[in-house]
Write a structure and sequence with these properties.
single chain; about 240 residues; five-stranded parallel sheet; five-stranded mixed sheet; about 30% helix; elongated
Length: about 240
């Protein structure tokens, strides 16, 4: 029995690795996450470009209610554990399966139900890499440091990161974006900050964070690059 979490990138189907495609095509069943709204997610849309729909199954997850979230993990784990009786299973996740991914919780649940299962992951291109490429922003160079955190970690955590690390990247939680921008402005780092959402998809947004108006998408990325004075300044 083998369960593999497959990173399929931030949404652009051209950013799926060759290994990811192979794992998806060789699996007996490919599960994709959908939210409790039931809409087609980025992972599902990407997978359907490479895998016959007859082998794709949805797992419904809740994102706003703790009790519903736990029940969804249990139900998803049971479905995957049952599917493992019929062959290897792949779970497609946006980005990378080891970075803020639902796969972490799914794998833990399945391991409890099927102790002999082999758990593996295939890394995927992350949103911060894609946003850096699309905006022409260097993430880190030389001895620079990088911090990655979710918006939901809170404004004090973000402020401390901005004061401590050279480059700071924040994921998810667009509902808090106005407060996040206030922190970036307060620390004097708004000028080079970049906002990105729906990368590689219809309605893509890549813009200066300080110029962003209106609500921010839940799956948005904020990139605050290091201050640099010249070439090779931090080697």
């Amino acid at each position: 029995m083998r369960l593999v979490g497959v990173g399929v990138g931030p949404g652009d189907p051209e950013l799926v690795t060759v290994k990811a495609v192979r794992e998806l095509r060789e699996a007996a069943t490919v599960f994709v996450p959908v939210t409790d709204t039931g809409e087609v997610g980025r992972a599902e849309a990407t997978v359907l470009g490479y895998v016959d729909p007859s082998r794709v199954r949805r797992l419904r997850f809740a994102i706003h209610d703790d009790d519903a979230r736990a029940r969804a993990w249990d139900q998803a784990g049971a479905e995957v554990a049952e599917a493992l009786e019929h062959g290897d299973v792949a779970f497609a996740t946006i980005g990378d399966p080891n970075i803020y991914s639902t796969f972490t919780y799914l794998a833990a649940t399945v391991r409890g139900l099927r102790p002999g299962v082999t758990i593996a992951t295939v890394p995927g291109i992350t949103a911060m890499q894609d946003l850096a490429a699309r905006s022409g922003t260097v993430l880190v160079e030389g001895t620079e440091t990088l911090a990655l955190l979710p918006f939901t970690a809170g404004e004090p955590v973000l402020e401390q990161a901005l004061l401590t690390f050279d480059t700071v990247v924040a994921y998810k939680g667009g509902r808090r974006f106005d407060a996040v921008l206030d922190v970036v402005r307060r620390t004097g780092r708004i000028d080079d900050a970049v906002y990105g959402a729906r990368l590689g998809l219809e309605g893509e947004q890549v813009e200066a964070a300080g110029e962003h108006t209106g609500p921010a998408h839940y799956l948005s990325t904020l990139l605050v690059p290091a201050r640099r004075s010249g070439r090779g300044g931090r080697l």
